């Protein structure tokens, strides 16, 4: 898990983020907390297609269990 902090000034945390990863270092959950520590939003990410190098080709990001963003990518490898 990785944590990230966004400051409003030098000492007051404005927002903080936590990221969870799978075994291939893909982000599987992204949680944003407000300055009081409450959850501002939570996104989950599911990967459904991978290439032979275990790189994702299709992912769906969910907000409140509703698909919010679909990403599809093509990766070309050169020898």
Q: Which key features would you list for this structure?
A:
mainly beta, single chain, 79 residues, six-stranded antiparallel beta sheet
What coarse outline follows from CA principal-axis ratios? elongated
Biggest sheet details: 6 strands, antiparallel
How many discrete structural domains? 1
Give, in order, the helices and strands: EEEEEE
Number of strands: 6
The number of helical segments is 0
Q: Give the strand content.
A: over 45%
With strands numbered from the N-terminus, the spatial order across the biggest sheet is: 1-2-3-4-5-6
Separation of the first and last Cα atoms: 34 Å
- Overall pLDDT: 89
Description:
With 79 residues, the chain is mainly β. It has one domain. 0% of the residues lie in helices and 62% in strands. The chain is built from no helices and six strands. A six-stranded antiparallel β-sheet has the order 1-2-3-4-5-6, with no helix packed on it. Strand 2 (13-21) and strand 3 (27-33) form a beta hairpin. The radius of gyration is 16 Å and the shape is elongated. The mean pLDDT is 89.
């Amino acid at each position: 898990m990785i944590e990230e902090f966004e400051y409003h000034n030098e000492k007051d945390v404005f927002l903080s983020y936590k990221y969870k990863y799978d075994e291939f270092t893909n982000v599987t959950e992204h949680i944003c907390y407000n300055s009081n520590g409450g959850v501002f939003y939570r996104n989950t990410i599911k990967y459904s297609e991978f290439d032979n190098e275990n790189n994702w080709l299709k992912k769906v990001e969910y907000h409140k269990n509703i698909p919010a963003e679909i990403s599809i990518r093509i990766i070309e490898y050169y020898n």
